[in-house]
Design a protein that fits this description.
Blueprint (H helix, E strand, L loop, with lengths): L11 H10 L5 H20 L12 H13 L11 H20 L27 H9 L6 H16 L3 H5 L15 E6 L5 E6 L1 H12 L24 H15 L7 H14 L4 H8 L4 H4 L3 H15 L8
Antiparallel strand pairs: 1-2
Keywords: Cell cycle, Cell division, Chromosome partition, Cytoplasm, DNA integration, DNA recombination, DNA-binding
Main location: cytoplasm
GO molecular function: DNA binding
Length: about 325
């Protein structure tokens, strides 16, 4: 059967292979694409469209699917999908259409799927101020190797701005040369396979060294689970770290919505507040586009406006 004669649903595995081999996308991205596209395939089946071919997909189909996404309610809380979540589903579908174009399979062009604009105002950029960061960090009492590990994780997040997937992928051997160093820089491969350098402050590195001194094992991961089943992978999972941060958020009294990404936002916001250039922060975060980084300027611009009002309002001028 020719590729163009195969239903859209039958292209999933070839598309994922394309993402892996030709696009070089990370396994997490491929996993997400598969999940989001399976939702689209279920929608096709619900409309008796499971046999639809790539060239038969129309703008009307896309519009109907977008209406489905915007009106679909979570059965647990009866809330509709946020615009940002809807975008994830549409981005995956656009990627599939891009694959069809790359393989010379007649289909709707990807740019026919226009993403809804989400609210990227400062209220959606959740971050902690320095006082809250200090409360969160000091909520961890390093009484044993587990708490030393937890403190090292929190310190690493705020010092580097690492994404959670980047942090869990760190290995202990990457820190084998830090013995006589007061700070440390490390090359990581981030989202989209983009390399960048992250920096561990003296404080963060001190906690990491203290944690590593407690390690008597020869496990490869930097951060490992102390309680595990024999033969299982000891590398901490993103879910484990999310729950860990939630626990210390409760203990410290900082907002319960605090997540690993909140610490990444806090890292970026602090850099900008201290005078770092937006382009520099883009490099620190590993953003492909400066547009992604600019969400933080909504926060810092407000701070600058408040300073201007306080010190440069002109209210003392003689009339």
């Amino acid at each position: 059967m020719e590729q163009s004669d195969r239903p859209i649903i039958k292209h999933l595995n070839d598309f994922l292979d394309y993402c892996d081999v030709e696009k070089g996308l990370r396994s997490n991205t491929q996993k997400n694409y598969k999940e989001y596209l399976n939702k689209f395939f279920l929608w096709l089946k619900s409309r008796n469209l499971e046999a639809i071919l790539p060239h038969q997909l129309t703008k009307d189909h896309i519009w109907d699917y977008r209406l489905f996404l915007s009106r679909r309610q979570d059965p647990k809380n009866h809330k509709t999908l946020e615009k940002s979540t809807q975008n994830y589903y549409l981005i995956a579908l656009r990627a599939l259409l891009g694959y069809f174009i790359a393989k010379d399979i007649l289909s709707l062009p990807p740019d026919k799927i226009v993403l809804p604009k989400g609210d990227k105002s400062a209220k959606n950029v959740k971050f902690l101020n320095l006082e809250q960061i200090e409360k969160l960090l000091t909520a961890v009492e390093p009484a044993d190797n587990i708490r030393l590990r937890d403190r090292a994780i929190l310190e690493a997040f705020f010092s580097t701005g690492l994404r959670i997937a980047e942090l869990v992928s760190l290995n202990a051997e990457q820190f084998s040369t830090t013995k006589n160093k007061t700070d440390f820089e490390l090359g990581v491969i981030g989202k989209g396979g983009r390399p960048r350098t992250v920096f561990f402050s003296e404080r963060a590195l001190t906690w990491l060294k203290s944690y590593l001194k407690t390690r008597k094992d020869k496990e490869k991961p930097l951060f490992i689970n102390a309680r595990y089943k024999k033969g299982s992978d000891r590398r901490l999972t993103p879910r484990y770290i999310e729950k860990l941060i939630k626990k210390y958020a409760i203990l410290s009294g900082v907002p319960l919505s605090t997540t690993p990404h909140t610490l990444r936002h806090s890292f970026a916001t602090d850099l900008l507040s201290q005078g770092a250039d937006i382009r520099q922060v883009q490099e620190f975060l590993g953003h492909k586009s400066i547009m992604t980084t600019q969400i933080y300027t909504h926060v810092t611009n407000k701070q600058l406006r408040d300073i201007h009002r306080k010190f440069h309002s002109g209210k003392d001028f003689k009339k």
